[in-house]
What we know:
Blueprint: E1 17-19, E2 25-27, E3 35-40, H1 47-58, H2 60-65, E4 68-74, H3 78-82, H4 85-88, E5 95-97, H5 102-106, H6 113-133, E6 152-156, E7 162-167, H7 177-186
Parallel strand pairs: 3-4, 4-5
Antiparallel strand pairs: 1-2, 3-6, 6-7
Amino acid sequence: MSESxxxxxxxxxxxxxxxxxxxxxxxxxxxxxKKVLVGxxxxxxxxxxxxxxxxxxxxxxxxxxxxxxxxxxxxxxxEVLLSKEFHQKISPIPLIADPDKTWYDAYGVESSARKxxxxxxxxxxxxxxxxxxxxxxxxxxxxxxxxxxxxAEFLIDEKGEVKHVHYAKDLNDRIHLDVIFQFAxxxxxxx
Length: 191
């Protein structure tokens, strides 16, 4: 994947119509009229990602009441995701397995050995402790999962346009919750 491929503000979000791990059809077109957070995570055992998913999951009802939906992608196989109780309970948030990283490429999600290594050296043990305290899965990669995948998050408006792009600088770098709540309330970011 080319690191220069990135999404821009006000462009249409790349369209997808996929089955999630719960066998539901997730059609991005059906989200028109709603604001959406689309998150691209690493593998099912990644503590950085599972801590983030856990935080977002705890805010789901509040965000939904403000008109914001969430869709999560993982680079893991469906069977790997469903092997852990934590990922089974993410529903009703759609959880899409994309082990071939087709949609990671479409959304310009980066692969970086440098960013991954720095994050693992400086933040891994603290993040594992946070994950374990919250009962979140932490395990080695399986199948096509990559240690170099760098998370990304996108805020998409009611018309299907990308309004905020966040390509992580490290494995704990995500859109701040205040920004997500502002977007959920107003449909705007940074105003």
